[in-house]
User: What shape does this take?
Amino acid sequence: MFKSLKIRLSITVIVCLAALYFLLPTFVADIPAPWNRYLAKEKIHLGLDLQGGMHLVLEIDTDRALEDMVERRANDLKESLMDRKVRFRNLKKAEGASMTMELPDPAGKTDLDNLLKEQYPEFEASSTKQGDSLLVTLTLQEKRAAEMKKLTVEHSLETIRNRVDQFGIAEPEIVPQGDDRIMVQLPGIKDPDRAKNLIGKTALLEFKLVDEENSLEEALRGLVPEGSVIAYGPAGSGAGRTPYLLKNKALLTGASLETARVQIGDRFGEPTVSLKFNAQGAADFDRITNENVRKHLAIVLDGVVHSAPQIRERISGGQAEITGNFTMDEARDLAIVLRAGALPAPVNILEERTVGPSLGSDSIRQGIWATIIGSIFVIIFMVFYYRLSGSIADLALIINVFLLLGVMAALRGTLTLPGIAGILLTVGVAVDANILIFERIREELRTGKTIRLAIDTGYSKAFITILDTHITGIVSAVFLIIFGTGPIKGFAVTLIIGLLASLFTAVFVTRLIFDYVTWNFNVKKLSI
Assistant: This one.
């Protein structure tokens, strides 16, 4: 029996020390440097409802991503057909994930089919006779379209996470929801509008040549030449935005960037964004500037022309610069989104909630007070009704909450307001388990059994009932995690941890204390 007591006491001490190891960073702000190296680094994080911050649900426009991809493939197909000397006309993107074209010579259909098989296998071709020519429709396969939509959401998720990380927001939660939505929670954010702009900016960077061969005035009257597009400069405080006639094809994109950083301009001392291309991008930029000396190259971000300087000479080294009327914060945010990469599709904000820090502080204070007051009433009742045995149950209750918080810290859990409710419910469940045991022990004592035998029989008979109620609670909480939303999940996670800790303290720890007392002291009457 003494050997069993030592083993159980060792297990209890080890479990409590482990909980203390993970909890120290949460409750002790400044741990001395020599000890800091050996302690856990993570602490219990506070959820959005306690810390304050922003909650967003974003919808990824996956259909737009497919349309953009088809348009790029249409431009590539034009060049491929010209390289193979296949006659065609009116090749353009059609409705949805498809494109259409005319083949003046129906015999060219064979060459088109071979080209599709070699370079564009994801498209299916259908054709109809139209006079002497053939009208061909190329449609993206459904399987490939579904894959592209999934990849678009995954790419968007990674890009948004990179932007948020570089913005310096601590402990963000960024998770997918459904097929085309992303949930973003930013605890502690102080500038919600800036965060929204950072997350939602597509940040598609393109370098396009200015079309100097055609008239901008005629294009503004509606006569836009094929292969060109009208774009505008950023909105300013003066007259209307400056229009530009640009070649539609992007010679270089932000995908070739290695880094982007903020610099102070030499001429006017305004913030600018300095770009550095990767090895391939630098080589392409060198070639583009060499082939287009004395032409204007526009720097276009999300369809807005930020500058269109003239290429005076070949530019080697892979360096470029975006200028504009930026504030320092705008320049920093632009550098962040360029480093993180462009979003593959536009995002729409479907839901937005902002929780103020003061509301979070009130929630913490009220939640803590509710837990403390509820626990005090439970502790007083147990001592009043079960006397010394009630004190043992109260000690187990304190250990229970201690272990619950320790496990949450070890799992890098987030404590929310519903999580505090879960802790309070755990207090009631833990005490209920002890009440079942104590009532069983009382029944055994009334039959005239000895104290040790009554304790042993009471625990044995109550164990099945306690195990059944705890397993039922855990299974219910698992379903809450599977089907519930964020706050419900926080409640369920806390409840599961609390129930497991309750099972350990109510059955294992209190039994250890009873056995220790009855074996080491000459107990004539059990205070229960």
